[in-house]
Input
Amino acid sequence: MSIAVNFQNVSRHFGQVRAVDGVTLDIEEGEFFAMLGPSGSGKTTCLRLIAGFDQPSTGHIRIFGEIADGLPPYRRNVNTVFQDYALFPHMTVGANVAYGLMIKGMPRAEREQKAREALSLVKLNGFEQRRPSQLSGGQRQRVALARALVNKPRVLLLDEPLGALDLKLREQMQEELRSLHHDLGITFVFVTHDQGEALSMADRVAIFNEGRIVQIGTPSEVYERPHTRFVASFVGSSNVLTPDFAAANGGPRAWTSLRPEKIDVLLPGEIPKTGQAIVSGQVSSLQYQGAVVRVAVNVAGTRLVATVPTGAKTIPDGGTVSLAWDRSSAVVMEPE
Amino acid sequence: MRSEPRASISLKVAAFVGLVFLHAPLALIVLYAFTTEEKSFQFPPPGYTTRWFSAAWFDRPDIWPPLWLSLKVALLATLIALVLGTLAAAALWRARFFGKDSISLLFILPIALPGIITGIALRSAFDIMNVPFSTWTIVLGHATFCIVVVYNNALARFRRLSGNMIEASMDLGADGFQTFRHVVLPQIGSALLAGGMLAFALSFDEVIVTTFTAGQQSTLPIWMLNELIRPRQRPVTNVVAIIVIAVTFLPILAAYYLTREGEHTGGSGK
Amino acid sequence: MSSSSIPAPIHSSVSDFFYRNSRLLTLLFIVPPLIWIGIVYVGSLFALLLQSFYSLDEFSGLVVHELTLATYGHLFESSNMVIVLRTTVMATIVTIASSIVSFPIAYYAARYAKGGWKALFYLAVMMPLWSSYLVKVYAWKLILAKEGIITWVAEKLHLGFVLETLLSVPVIGGSSLSFSYIGTFLVFVYIWLPYMILPTQAALERVPGSLIEASADLGATPGQSLRTVILPLALPGVIAGSIFTFSLTLGDYIIPQIIGNSRPFIGSTVYALQGTAGDIPLAAAFTVVPIVIMGIYLVIARRLGAFDAL
Output
């Protein structure tokens, strides 16, 4: 596998603001790569740097080994699906999709044929003559996708493409994007602030915070082995144990992450498995969440949250319970 | 959906009376073009005739030179305003630079200050620099306030143009010129046309600045002003007034529909 | 990845250059209009200011190109100050009257007119705004003439005496409406009215209907809602409109020349001074007065948030 996109110590400053601050990164060819982070963390700026809408202040970006410094967007074989789709309102859907081919000088009949194929790829057969204004949000999204894919980019950039869609449509599009990626075999770089989306779709995830990448890994790596307190709390929810608390319960004296679903809630009389760490405290709240119940427990001033499958046992609100976890479930993190 | 609000009778009457107040005078201009009475403004007119239209056409050669001058000036001023106003709007639309707000204020100044100030200022400048009056001194003055009209129209449309549109075009392989031709121009074209038409209408009947920059030349509004102060055949003035109304009305109407259409397509991108 | 395999047209490399130097492109765009406005317009304003520091030689009638404050001394003579006062009072009354007349029109257009009616309403306001200034003034000459439509209507309604009484009032009266301050005032209000309606309407359109419903829900009568909710929110629009009506009245010289009792206003004085009298320095000094008044007015308007409504 070759490297599709390479960031070499890239920074982008806007005045005093360091939107991207020393990012080094390799995205492999054919990979579905997600950039995850809260708003303002630099993920979208990184995407714009790949597309060529913006240039790094320092550092270099290589796309398939070629240095991209100063290269305008129209000289890069990457295409973008914009957050607001950016369809041209004065053109039909067909003309929108064929736009890139028209610019390349492809004859009309040929490019119309290609546009039809691209539209059928996103299940919009027969929409060529419509105007973007006559489409629903989900359909516009597909047109934007077709318009990018018809140019056969080596890298497809997606900037929060599902952000404007409702939940049902979003889940459907997630599946379709995955299968498109699988069928086309090109590199997808996907920007999102939705950790669920990133975990369920991507091969690898880069987690951004304050202009830096704080962790890169497969979804299960970043979920199971968060390197920092930020990752632990941003990806899923987690109990972050202080060094003192961790040390008092048999772990090393370090910040430690403990996922709620890894904690067993024991009623008085129940016995923990051998080798488990155990603490006890008072239930401070119960939250019904459908499949699970979230139990918050006050352990000598520290709040720990555990989840229990609904209906597994009846936990008394305000009562005393014990919490037990395998020591291997407690993940030691880097000091920040 | 909330229930439709209903206007009270008194509000309806007040709004209606206000509109009549705005339009009745223009209707009277037309009426008086047909009166048989030429020495006074007697109402109701003692009789009706169409002879003033032929009188204006055949007996008053003094109307034609001002008419041609006005058309020439309006055309030149509009062309200059179209180029400069569009450039200004394009530059101030996306770019961020120091002094941007002051520059945009500068472009609005010629209509924010009373016309007499623009007029006398230009007159002073010509005086100091010994510039003789000519068609070009009139065009100079007109273009100055016509730029604002084009600038405002173009800027309003530019603002509705999603910034991503240009990036999307470049992303799909179009360079700056191709993007301008295929994406920007089709979307701002009607706004430019509208701005140009408004500028033409504005220039065609401008009198306040023109008096100061024309010297001895006479544009059609200056001809009218002279007729108002020293009337000869009053109904002929009305005939000319109708021509002026027609020449300004049509471009304004066209401009309105052009920008409305633009709003429609522009808004659909959202 | 770069399209080096495809032969690049020449315009493409020009485009590349400007893509890398986008500030240069902005500069290239802004320079021509800036030169025009900056040199032609602002330069002329400075020429005007400069002229006001020159003076007129009273014997030769020629402009003396030497800097002096004599012209400003001349400006502050009482006969000239009366003109400034008269113009300012007229501008103030005209502004107040047009805000009152325009409010119901703007309110109706903003809240009640729908669809096609709304477009028609908008056009009905826009047309007089854009149609020829001179034609409109002329129309009022017809209306206000002694033998014109107003006198005729008054007589038909047997209200001729009302008109006579009005015209016999000292100061504002005159031989006929077209030779009185009343006439001048009416025409000013008419001509500048659209400039007041449009910003007021724009401000009213930004008042969400739910606010009025909320006000009614909390027990306010329609009158109270108008006074406590709608008017305060529409005020920036009214003030924005008043910038136009005030400024335009201050600087106008044609209306008082054609309709009125021929007492001079700032505009007509400037016009006479630069024309027949050839006293450009005093004319220039006179125009500085509306600039200063408008400057003060704009500062106040800005404080009241009128600029957002423009």
User: Anything to note?
Assistant: The radius of gyration of chain A is 24 Å. Chain A has a mean pLDDT of 91. The domain at 238-332 of chain A is CATH 2.40.50.140 (OB fold (Dihydrolipoamide Acetyltransferase, E2P)). Chain A touches chain B at residues 51-53, 72-74, 78-80, 82-84, 86-90, 99-100, 102-104, 131-133, 147-148, 151 (CB under 8 Å).
